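Quick one: structure tokens for this chain, please?
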Amino acid sequence: MQANDTRLSDSRAAASLNFGTATLTGVVPSANLSLTTSSADTTAGHMVQAHDTRLSDSRAAASLNFGTATLTGVVPGANLSLTTSSADATAGHLVQANDTRLSDSRPATSVNFSTATLSGTVPRVNGGTGLSSSGAAGNYLRSDGTNWQSSAIQATDVPSLSGTVYDASGTKLASAHTITQLATLGALGTLTTTFAGAAVFTGANTYDCTARDITSVSTLAITYNSGSSISMVGGTPNGSVHYTCTGN
């Protein structure tokens, strides 16, 4: 037979092929395909081109259900209609991240501090305390030289409440204090008194006293028994005496 015999496979018409069992290779020339992008062609078995507008990648956004669709990627800014205008308050519209109506973009002057709910801790460097709580009842705000603390009062925070007493060289006497008392003399015009608590001096030689008889306006003689006791003699029997002692 001749090479162009129609019974040969290269010459057979497509109608003699069983597409259900035949293995097809190569690319079918577009001239041999009847393709359409018309939405009117919905015939089962017909083919459409890759850029057919009915394919998912070609569908317009208007045909998507955003309530159920899974969206990925970043939408180009050119495809979004965004505005920073406070006049656009339409539900469903988008605003840009730097929109002045967003909380992070609002200037502080637009916040009403009398009604706003403020949270967080103001750092020390920004004028705050840096503390997240006030601490225990009775505490006060105390600086350690670097940071603020909620602290109980410390012994070193309270200055000495005793009087300041110096020696002749101008040196301040440690633990110096003064006591003063009005008392009643005995039947012989004498009195021995004992100091207690913070009134006690270090020793018999660390303080000096004067005693004045209120009745006779005379000075009594004083004997220093110890740092916590003195004796007075020479006063009016059963009279009153005022004495003062200073030292450490």
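The first strand starts at residue 140 and ends at 143.
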